[in-house]
Here is the input.
Amino acid sequence: MTRTTPSLHIGTAGWGLPRAVAEAFPGDGALLERYARVLGCTEINTTFSRTHRADTFERWAMQTPTGFRFSVKLPKAFTHVARLKVPPREVGAFVSSLAGLGERLAVLLVQLPPSLGFDPEVARDFFRSVRAEYPGAVVCEPRHPTWFTAVAERLLVEQGIGRVVADPPKPAGAGEPGGWLGERGDGQGAVVYCRWHGSPRMYWSAYDDDWLEARARELLNWPATTQVWCIFDNTAAGAAADDALRLAARMARLSA
Here is the structure.
């Protein structure tokens, strides 16, 4: 009997295909087309550092199958330069620029700099601006200890913002899901978003089989209505795509 499992989205930050795994992504077409035939999602990171034309997002959507999903990282101009003190019109302009992704846009990612502490007024105003423009899932990857407090947790829940599960888990608490996890806090109807950066060497190291097996078993315990995202960001040496394939294989085996 097939067990009931959460909705799984496994992919990488970007869609680079290193030579070592190229044969696992066969066929003709652009890299994104080949990638999207095998993996079901990707995280667009280039929006962090530059602006894209509207037709770029349209082209990416057209290169992927109907069920494929994108998450999009918010610009560093919002998170690292303005440090969340962003006029609502700028938030609206960015969200509007993503319209070409259509229904394939599934998550907005807010990654904060390690130096940015929790300021409740600033955070509330920013997330309200985002929520006013985008009704879908929004997740935040904070990297300052002050975001891992009861006060910060309440604000994320209030604004409907999920907290990313990060590896390596820095600071303490970053390796556990938090923020909004559904109306009852049990994951029903929520997005659990994992960003795995590689360990011990961030962005470079591949994950071993035992680590992936343990994560797969943990993630399959979420309810069937939970959307579980697993994004491998250890792209510097090309480990991400292989890790995503290995995790997907484990998930399939354990779900059977």
